[in-house]
Write a structure and sequence with these properties.
The complex is a heterodimer of chains A (267) and B (277). Chain A is an all-alpha fold and 267 residues long. Chain A has 2 domains: 178 residues, MetI-like fold (Orthogonal Bundle), CATH 1.10.3720.10; 36 residues. Chain A is built from 11 helices and no strands. The N and C termini of chain B lie far apart (47 Å). Classes of the chains: A mainly alpha (267), B mainly alpha (277).
Chain lengths: 267, 277
């Protein structure tokens, strides 16, 4: 029974990692072929850093992810504080609306934002077109939902008297929020921010419809390459990004464990 | 600062959701109910009438059938994984769970495209077949390839919720049942499985919804004959340039998914009552 369980898990893992293994392996392949192994090389990793298109897409991907995450954290956390103080009906309605970007299919979200932008540009502000700003706003609109969703449960756990106590002891409301509320909900903020960041980095569909023709992120470069044959450089950058995200998750996981230990030891 | 003051904090976000969540959806409805003629938007239901054409209905049907198949396969493949990972002997192996979720953090376009190099005629699998003396086979650009891509992409969405429900379920009840003489099969079918239904329901929604609306998986692995609803929508916006018709298809897709969502959650409630009585 035990070996059967192990065998089953291994089989599913092989299924899940086969494409990733192929991808990583062929980032070290000498020829451009995706099927025949001709020898080991780091050539594509070197090429990668000379490819302007990939580098600028990488820059777009990370700057969009970073900026939209930071703004989403600010907008989402303040929103969550407000939503938490709402009456049940208002809270429920707001959360239903907040969940639309999470539940709605990517493609519908993409086209609906594209329609919004183009409609506004056509009938209200002429002369603008799709680009970096519209892409950023699109990412912001799904990222904020994730932050609200992660912060709200933490606020609910928070004892409302703590904040009132801080005010009674002479803290200004802003001090109260900064020094009492925020430290308590920081795990929710970090989870939400991380979720938003990875969602933004990985997004293709919404970006595809909202970035226009001048700006592209990494996923869009990859998509256009799938139409004209994948370049091993793309395998190389994916390998690097996979390692980066794994390391990020590992660090966050370690931080989480350490903070738990600290709380326990300080008791 | 009173509660009312604190409520004011949500105002910027409420304005934001009005502009970037609600308004776009209203515009999609508006576009779906109009046609453009001479720069003017005229009210019309012809976009919806067009969707009744068998050519399009087949695409709709294919999307739903493939997504349903994908969901069933994900349950059959993913449930045992979640069950094993949540069992006592694996409970301390959090790293294993991480391994099952980690692929989600690699760009999904590339992960999906990677299947092309595995399945194509000169690909990895066919080279293996040749080595053992089998003929090369056409495995790409058909419905099965699309299905494989769907299962591959969405399997973690089934494993995670089922796993967390199984982890949280009360071991005491199961031990009590064992003490009272239930055999393993009875324990599983009368307790574990019914208790894990909420997890399965969220897994089903998390798999079925993106599978129905995907256009990348079918675009990369399906080829032109195996279009899904997602491809149809994308075409209207980027090739046919008929945004009004594209909006109508999107509305139908949203209604379809909303209905399935309601049905899934209704099943969940019924089952919970079923356990109680």
């Amino acid at each position: 029974m035990r070996t059967m369980k192990k065998a089953y898990l291994s089989l599913v893992l092989i299924f899940m990692y086969a494409p990733i293994a192929v991808l990583i392996a062929f980032s070290f392949n000498e020829s451009r072929s995706r099927a025949n192994w001709t020898g080991f090389t780091l050539h594509w990793y070197g090429e990668l850093f000379r490819d302007q298109r990939i580098l600028s897409a990488l820059g777009t991907t990370f700057s969009i992810a970073l900026i939209s995450t930071v703004i989403a954290i600010i907008l989402g956390t303040t929103a969550a504080i407000g939503i938490n103080a709402m009456k049940p009906v208002g809270k429920k309605t707001t959360m239903t609306i907040n969940n639309i970007p999470v539940i709605n299919p990517d493609i519908v979200m993409g086209i609906s934002l594209m329609i919004l932008y183009v409609f506004v540009f056509r009938f209200f502000v002429a002369g603008l077109e799709l680009g970096y700003a519209t892409l950023l706003l699109a990412h912001l609109s799904f990222n904020t939902s994730y932050v609200v969703l992660s912060v709200l449960p933490k606020l609910r756990q928070l004892d409302p008297n703590v904040f009132e106590a801080a005010l009674d002891l002479g803290a200004t409301p802003l001090q109260g929020i900064r020094k009492v509320v925020v430290p308590e909900i920081i795990p929710g903020i970090i989870t939400g921010g991380l979720l938003a960041f990875t969602m933004s980095i990985d997004d293709f569909v919404v970006s595809f419809f909202t970035a226009g023709s001048g700006v592209e992120n990494l996923s869009m470069v990859i998509y256009s390459m799938t139409k004209r044959g994948i370049n091993p450089k793309i395998n190389a950058i994916s390998t690097l990004m996979f390692i980066f995200v794994m390391a990020l998750l590992y660090v966050v996981n370690m931080l989480d464990k350490n903070s738990k230990k600290k709380i326990i030891s300080s008791d | 600062m009173t509660k009312i003051h604190r409520r004011l904090f949500s105002i910027p976000y409420l304005v934001w959701t009005g502009i970037f969540i609600i308004l776009p959806l209203i515009l999609v409805f508006y576009y779906s109910l109009t046609i453009e003629s001479g720069g003017q938007f005229l009210f019309s239901t012809s976009n919806y009438a067009r969707l009744m054409d068998p050519v399009y209905l087949i695409v709709l049907q294919r999307s739903v059938v493939l997504a349903l198949l994908c969901t069933v396969i994900c349950i059959l493949l993913g449930y045992p994984v979640a069950y094993i990972l949540a069992s006592k002997e694996y409970i301390n192996k959090g790293f294993l769970l991480f391994l099952f979720l980690a692929p989600m953090w690699m760009n999904f376009l590339l992960r999906t495209y990677s299947w092309v190099s595995i399945l194509e005629r000169n690909g990895f699998l066919n080279s293996l077949f040749e080595l053992v003396g089998l003929p090369r086979m056409d495995m790409l650009y058909n419905n099965s390839a699309v299905l494989l891509g769907m299962v591959y992409n969405f399997l973690p969405f089934m494993i995670l919720p089922v796993y967390s429900v199984l982890r949280r379920s009360d071991q005491g009840i199961i031990e009590a049942a064992q003490d009272l003489g239930a055999n393993p099969r009875q324990v599983f079918f009368r307790l574990t499985l019914p208790l894990s239904i909420p997890g399965m329901i969220s897994g089903i929604t998390m798999v079925f919804m993106p599978a129905t609306s995907t256009f990348i998986i079918s675009d990369l692995l399906g080829g032109a004959q195996n279009m899904l609803v997602g491809n149809l929508i994308e075409q209207q916006f980027y090739r046919a340039n008929d945004w009004h018709y594209g909006s109508a298809i999107s509305v139908v897709l949203m209604v379809l998914l909303l209905l399935s969502f309601v049905i899934f959650t209704m099943v969940d409630k019924n089952e919970e009552e079923g356990i109680l009585f």
